[in-house]
Amino acid sequence: MKQKFDTIISTCVPLPMENVDTDQIIPARFLKATSREGFGENLFRDWRYDKQGQPIATFPLNDPRYKDAKILVAGKNFGSGSSREHAAWAIADYGFRVVVSSFFADIHKNNELNNFVLPVVVSDDFLAEIFATIEADPKAELKVDLPAQTITNLTTGRSEQFDINPYKKHCLINGLDDIDYLLTKQADIESYEASR
């Protein structure tokens, strides 16, 4: 899942629902695995499939108009509930690189960053505009520029800045997890240890 992140231009999957919690993102019955792979097939499982395991055509992830989108646009308060990292694993494994919302639960936001998914917080007004743009044209694209920390609706030209922790920004741009980052500091650490 380690991928360098620079600028992404992509269509979007709209999920205009508020208070989507981690149990809806990945239901608890799928948490037995310890490897990060394979969770994407059960992302939003109880909303994507009926009790017989058949895809529910009206759910956005099953809509062919949104096929291959790398950006998930979600309603306010995304990722609330339990702190399960598996929710971020499922989002990343499905293929999303960015999740856009007007508010994220803090733990889930950090879990996304740790799994090379960029959570982008926008204003309520801009989020509503993005949803309206996608509804009018499912092929509408957003441009997410991590170095500049901007997100742009390419249909309207409207852009907003977003915040990100400088350390996490560095890690995403360079494709580093926390261990990788420490290894880039190995010479400095050894020099410090030798001087003690």
Question: Describe it for me?
Answer:
With 196 residues, the chain is of the alpha/beta class. 33% of the residues lie in helices and 16% in strands. The chain has eight helices and eight strands. The protein has a four-stranded antiparallel sheet with strand order 1-6-7-8, with helices on one face. It starts with 6 loop residues before the first strand and ends with a helix.
Short note summarizing the structure:
This protein is of the alpha/beta class and 196 residues long. The chain is 33% helix and 16% strand.
Total beta-strand segments: 8
Rounded Rg = 18 Å
Number of helices: 8
For the terminal residues, how far apart are their CA atoms? 38 Å
Task: Determine the structural class based on helices, strands and strand pairing.
Answer: alpha/beta
Question: Which descriptors apply to this entry?
Answer:
8 strands; four-stranded parallel sheet; alpha/beta; 196 residues
SSE order and pairing:
Layout: E1 7-10, E2 12-15, H1 22-25, H2 45-48, E3 71-74, H3 86-94, E4 98-101, H4 106-114, E5 118-121, H5 124-136, E6 142-145, E7 150-153, E8 159-161, H6 166-174, H7 178-184, H8 186-194
Parallel strand pairs: 2-3, 3-4, 4-5
Antiparallel strand pairs: 1-6, 6-7, 7-8
